[in-house]
Structures are given as C-alpha cells and as structure tokens.
Design goal:
- With 208 residues, the chain is an alpha/beta fold.
- It has two domains: 125 residues, Nucleotidyltransferase, domain 5 (2-Layer Sandwich); 60 residues, Nucleotidyltransferase, domain 5.
- A five-stranded mixed β-sheet has the order 3-2-1-4-5, with helices on both faces. A four-stranded mixed β-sheet has the order 8-7-6-9.
- Strand 6 and strand 7 form a beta hairpin.
- Helix 1 packs across helix 2.
- The relative contact order is 0.20.
Length: 208
C-alpha cells in the first residue's frame, strides 16, 4: 500500500510517503507560508522516492483543529489530489496525530493544541480508545477533569514540553502511520474540523 500524507496545521508544513510500512518524510522551509511550500514539497518527495501521485492508493490529511488557513490549505490539496487521481482521502484530526508520538505508552495521553488566551483544543486517549472527544476547552478547567497520571503531547506552554518523548506539533510522518491504520475512514473527500469559529468570525459576532 502507498499513501501520501499532508500536514499543514502546524507552523511548519510536512509531507510523508507511507510505502508498505516504510515512511519517508520531508519538512518545508519554516520561513515560507504553507501555500508556497506544500506543492513543491510533494514534488520533491515524489521525485526523490521515484513515485507518482497516480501510484498512491490513498491520500491522507490532517483535518484540524489548528491554524484555520493551514487546515484549509491541506484539506483542499488532499481533496484535489484525490479527485484528480480518483483515489480516496483519509482525514485524521490533529489531536490524534499528536498522540502517535506516545502510541504504546500505558498511561492515558492528553493532546493539546494552543488556542491562545488560556484556551486549547484537547482530547484524551488511552491506547486506541478516545476517553474525551476533541473539543475547544479552557485549559485550567480541562486539566481538573483529567485522571492522576497522564502523558501530554502538544504545544500548550508548560505541559507537553516536560515529556521528552512527546511531540510538540502534528507531523506528516505520524499522520502517515496513523492513516495507514485508518483506511476504513477513506472518503471521496475530507472535511475540515475547526471546533470553534475563526477569530474574524468571533470578532464579527461580538460587534453585531
């Protein structure tokens, strides 16, 4: 099986090829915007691995939550590839993609993505089970709900960084490994997962 994974919810875009259990990952130039880097990065990955878009069995994409612009870019590109190649698209959310870095640990894993002003997108996993579904939360209140011993992954200050094994941001290599186990999710197109309105929408609502 061959699968191309696209990760654009993090500050730096990454892409990865899953090919019969082996993962090849490339990272973009962190000084450029995702819209400028993703397609050239895919071209480089395919050229250097000797693959083509038409050879892929699946395309995978991080559907969010995260950067609204990043989510839209990744989902649009993956869906365009799927449509053009007539191949299905697997959508995985950013919180479960983060969990991949700690897959196999015995403790529950809380994944968090900073949403600013004391807020975050969060979920809680134990093995392959979802204990608390992804949602937008107030960090302090959410932490009070967690069981005693929990591992963290994500970019909320002071939490995940204390665990050297964890990932700070979602990564295409982790996404590729996760999507390869989630082929039952494959659809004609992926849909973004935002969990809350964008900042512009929230400001407009306040002013209305």
């Amino acid at each position: 099986m061959k699968l191309l994974a696209i990760e654009t919810t993090a500050p730096v875009a990454t892409v990865a090829l899953w090919r019969d259990g082996e993962v090849t990952r490339y990272s973009a130039d962190d000084t450029k915007k995702h819209a400028e880097t993703v397609l050239p990065l895919v071209e480089r990955l395919l050229a250097e691995t000797g693959e083509t878009l038409s050879a892929m069995d699946y395309f995978a994409v991080d559907i969010g939550p995260g950067s609204f612009t990043g989510v839209r870019i990744g989902v649009c590109i993956a869906n365009a590839f799927g449509y053009a190649m007539q191949k299905p698209v697997i959508g995985c959310n950013a919180l479960e993609t983060l969990r991949e870095a700690l897959r196999g640990v015995s403790e529950p894993v809380c994944t968090m993505i900073d949403a600013r002003n004391g807020n975050a997108y969060a979920a809680l996993y134990e093995g392959e089970n979802v204990l608390l579904e992804p949602k937008a939360v107030a960090v302090a209140e959410y932490l009070d709900r967690l069981p005693g011993i929990v591992r963290f992954a994500g970019d909320v200050p002071g939490l995940a960084q204390s665990d050297p094994a964890s990932a700070r941001y979602p990564d295409a290599g982790a996404l590729a490994r996760l999507a390869a186990r989630r082929t039952e999710r494959a659809q004609e197109r992926a849909l973004p997962l935002y969990l809350r309105a964008s900042q512009a929408e929230r400001l407009h609502k306040r002013e209305a």
